[in-house]
Known about the structure:
The protein is built from 17 helices and no strands.
Amino acid sequence: MDLTHLLISLILIFAGAKVLGELAGRIGQPPVLGELAAGVILGVGALKIVNPDANVLVLLADIGVIILLFEAGLATDLYEMAKVGWRSLAVASVGVALPFAGGFVFARAFGYPNLVAIFLGATLTATSVGITVRVLTDLGKMGTREAKIILGAAVIDDVIGLIILAVVRDLGAAGAVNWTGVAIKAGAAVAFFAGAIVLGVIFARQLVRVIERMRVSGALIVGAVGFALAWALAAEVAGSATIVGAFAAGLALGRTHKSEAIRTEVAPVAFIFTPIFFVLTGAGVDVRYFNVFDAANRPVLVLAGALFLAAVGGKFLAGFAAGKRTNTTAVGIGMSPRGEVGLIFAEVGRRAGVVGADLFAALVVVIALTTFFTPPFLKFALTDRPARTSFGAWFFKPLRRRPRRGADPDRGAGES
């Protein structure tokens, strides 16, 4: 990509993101939905102006998601997140097991061999928390219990996902699993996240002290973003995901007395980079696979529909593992998008020769549907009926017994 093409792409990305984001907001939807739609229009499925595989744009999008998760970490109280740690672990564990089992069963039912079924199930375990974080931020819900559970579960899910990815990569390459290598990668991923937080808090306090002594303008924002990039790089070197390092950096700087000032100064940086990530995510969606009138697409769409049920149903049911006094619907929906993480899994299968063109197309359809499904439904779950704690509580509300005559209808309010 030359400079002219890059500038044209960025201009269209920014313009499309803001115009369609504004339209989405005016019809009551999160702006991120408009940014994804802008990507679909500009990308491979329509105008073909923005190339989602262009190396420069991919790198800028990666910076965008790093900044996004860094912001999420800044807005998350480390101690409050620790309080819901067991809930996050339960949600992540169920949210991996159920989609994997569903994907495996559906693949076998469609006649695919075990190796292919394992790849399909593994792809459905992925979670891309970037879209969920953006919706939570737009709605001002980053401080809620549900947001903390989702973020904690997403980090755990990422660690589990790295282990599964190592397993399926070994399966695709050699037909056998190197369990020693898997155990090493698992231990390294867990150790890195724990160490990144502990060391991050120490280094973050020292960084803030140094910045406070500096007189040059912009020292705080440059230092904070540099710190996030450094921790993202450390995660990459350690074999973990860059977003895990960025999130840990945000948690660490969020423990300093400059956290609010950092959040204020980081916001404009996020306004520039994060739309690139979401537009590029939408640009990779080829809408031609959604054409039900094309007979060649129907087997792909049938399989995609089954995998979509496994993907969304598994994560939705995982939300109930969050326990009482929690909006389990919001947690389940918030864990649903696969985004670029799902695409990475699918690409590993395609390159290994395990996933053919038809299966890859089905997975792309599923990933696209989960990506577009999340913003409006998460908004609904968080805002339309705030009193309910779960879909079941709302759905079965008409079946509840009415209070006896003379009974206090407000007795026990707020208990669950």
